[in-house]
Amino acid sequence: MRLLPTTLNRVANTIPGSAPAVGFAVHAAETAAGWAAAAALASLVLAVRGWRLGVRCEPGHLVVSGYLRSRRIDRSRITGVTDFPAVRWTAPGGGKRWTPVLAFLGTSEETAGTYRRKRENVVRLRRWAGGRRR
What we know:
By secondary structure, the protein is α+β, with helices and mostly antiparallel strands. The chain is built from 4 helices and 7 strands; from the N terminus they run E-H-H-H-E-E-E-E-E-E-H. A hairpin with a 4-residue loop joins strand 3 and strand 4. The longest helix is centred in the first third of the chain and has 18 residues, at 34-51.
């Protein structure tokens, strides 16, 4: 099961990467600056990761995709899902961990439909995490 924000949210999530990418690409084209081309490429990677923000609930584990990294968490190690939202889990060594789910983080400026979709996804994630452990 894949839990994603609305398409409009997914487009908005690309802006932190796509906006700088355009500026860096223009600068690289005008000056042939290698660092600007590299920065444009890195910004494009950030834009793609912004589009892919979300959660994949697979049979034995959860994959939380963020802007900078994705984390795979064994279902049996999940101890809860907070209202932030974040996944609370226990590391193999026994340490307590907390992984934010940025895709479902709400703001006061978003539409009711967007907010509702994010809340529904958090409820579905909680239901999945609280289900039978394997």
